[in-house]
Amino acid sequence: MEIPMFSLVSSPFIFLASLLSLFLLYALAWMLIAGRRRLPLPPGTTGWPYIGETFQLYSQNPNVFFASKVKRYGSIFKTHVLGCPCVMISNPEAAKFVLVTKSHLFKPTFPASKERMLGRQAIFFHQGAYHMKLRKLVMRAVMPEAIKDIVSDIEAIVVDTLRSWDGMLINTFQEMKTYTFNAALLSIFGKDDVLYREELKRCYYILEKGYNSMPINLPGTLFNKSMKARKELAQILAKILCSRRQRKEESKDLLGSFMGEKEGLTDDQIADNVIGVMFAARDTTASVLTWTVKYLGENPSILQAVTEEQETIMRCKEKSGEDRILTWADTRKMPITSRVIQETLRVASILSFTFREAVEDVEYEGYLIPKGWKVLPLFRNIHHSPDNFPDPEKFDPSRFEVAPKPNTFMPFGNGIHSCPGNELAKLEILVLLHHLTTKYRWSMVGPQNGIQYGPFALPQNGLPIRLSLKT
Ligand code: HEM
């Protein structure tokens, strides 16, 4: 016999059974949530209310703070800095968990003032479809296939730069910043738009002064001046966009990639990302170059090996009657120099750590990382752990003759937010080292031991050196 639907639902037995299952479901969900909440937080201390352990972190070399915590609590510990509860992680597997396997549970996070200066629509601050689109556009302009064609233009910048240092006492970091900014402009705007180059530089230099300032937007403050310079930069970019559109030419540079019609980026989105790439490309590469000059200066036998490798390339080109201009193929024949760059990236670890924020409660290895907490993978600690790199304080490029263990070497980060500009950065460094080692000698001036953080790790006082042409 068929039972009518109505009688099924209305039968008291079914009603009670539904009620019971609802109750059981609710109880199960509650137990799950409560169970999760009962997971312990990682070990560690959180210091004073609100200020936490900010003072302990910033009153000394930050690496001393990290190292003492790791020694006491192990590779995952909690702390509280800059008004935020944090979990710091210094083991390769945990870093992979946060940056790669479960990256959707950890969003990038920056101070609000950085977001306002770079522009809220810049790649760094996003996840999901918009981020993937921007990443594709950046990669298209800076992957090896695209930068192969600009080796000789980068070389021309290097030759001019080094010539301007001849016989001078220079601040290596400041001079390297000029070089890397010119190289960044080349990759963004190609060789066009020279008209606006000096204006772009002037505004960008004002903007960067405010990067680490307090976000107080009152007349006369650094932040206020920076925000004005940012506005001016966006106006210059609008002029460049306008004149490119009138010319109707397609360009393979980064601006051309952002301007692709089917990409549909607005002018504001393009401006935020152009300024963002200037920021990401310049001081990072300049810091690494500065450390490379220091480590080569301190290790004469390694400098000798690099110089010989570069002289061999130069002589081969002369012998074969080839044009003396460096090519992409030449830069692929520099294994010793490349290992020096890798070892510099490891020892200097210019980005000591990065920031993420848990978007929900996350369980890792029996610990709870609560929603909203910051999570900091500590690159420097991973790069300086004797478990990953024996005798870690020694500058020894030969260790890279063997590939490092997975997830132990992350100078360019890891996962969906890892650095898309890494090949461009390495190219800029290789080309500069080619000319520096084959044509110039240099000596360091003043004390050599200090490190300053601002925010990238740098030799004290930017490494003053005296440089001259080899005779
Ligand atoms: C030696 C020089 C450089 C170093 C050490 C470096 C390092 C890094 C690191 C560690 C990240 C990831 C940060 C994170 O996960 O939170 C990153 C991201 C990024 N880098 Fe670099 N970088 C360098 C040069 C460059 C250059 C030349 C460019 C120019 C295209 C560039 C563009 C970017 C961009 C756009 C991002 C954001 C990627 C995203 O969010 O998807 N970087 N960089």
* Highest CATH level, the class: Mainly Alpha
Structural class: alpha+beta
- Give the overall shape: globular
CATH architecture: Orthogonal Bundle
Number of helical segments with 4 or more residues? 19
Strand content: 5-15%
Number of domains: 1
Sequence of strands across the biggest β-sheet: 1-2-8-5-3
Ligand kinds: protoporphyrin IX containing FE
Count of β-strands:
12
Our Rg estimate from Cα atoms comes to 26 Å
For the record, give the distance between the C-alpha atoms at the N and C termini, rounded to a whole number: 108 Å
User: Helicity range of the residues?
Assistant: 40-55%
Mean pLDDT: 90
Poorly predicted residue ranges: 1-10
The name of the CATH superfamily reads Cytochrome P450
Largest beta-sheet characterization: 5 strands, mixed
CATH topology: Cytochrome p450
InterPro entries: Cyt_P450, Cyt_P450_CS, Cyt_P450_E_grp-I, Cyt_P450_sf
GO cellular component, one term: membrane
Pfam family, one: p450
Keywords: Heme, Iron, Membrane, Metal-binding, Monooxygenase, Oxidoreductase, Transmembrane, Transmembrane helix
Description of the structure:
It catalyses: 2-cis-(+)-abscisate + reduced [NADPH--hemoprotein reductase] + O2 = (+)-8'-hydroxyabscisate + oxidized [NADPH--hemoprotein reductase] + H2O + H(+). Belongs to the cytochrome P450 family. Its EC number is 1.14.14.137. Pathway: Plant hormone degradation; abscisic acid degradation. InterPro entries: Cyt_P450 (IPR001128), Cyt_P450_CS (IPR017972), Cyt_P450_E_grp-I (IPR002401), Cyt_P450_sf (IPR036396). The protein is α+β, with helices and mostly antiparallel strands and 471 residues long. The chain has one domain (41-469): Cytochrome p450 (Orthogonal Bundle), CATH 1.10.630. Helix content is 55%, strand content 10%. The protein has 19 helices and 12 strands. The chain has helices at residues 5-10, 12-37, 54-58, 62-73, 92-101, 112-118, 128-142, 144-147, 151-165, 172-189, 194-209, 222-247, 254-259, 267-298, 300-319, 328-331, 335-348, 379-383, 422-439; strands at 76-81, 84-89, 106-108, 168-171, 356-358, 362-364, 367-369, 374-377, 440-444, 451-453, 457-459, 464-469. A 5-stranded mixed sheet has the order 1-2-8-5-3. The chain has a 3-stranded antiparallel sheet with strand order 4-12-9. Strands 6-7 form a two-stranded antiparallel ribbon. Strand 6 (362-364) and strand 7 (367-369) form a beta hairpin. Helix 9 runs antiparallel to helix 10, helix 14 (267-298) packs parallel to helix 19 (422-439) and helix 15 crosses helix 19 (422-439). It is globular, with a radius of gyration of 26 Å. Bound molecules: protoporphyrin IX containing FE. The site of protoporphyrin IX containing FE (HEM) has 25 residues, from helix 7, helix 14 and helix 19.
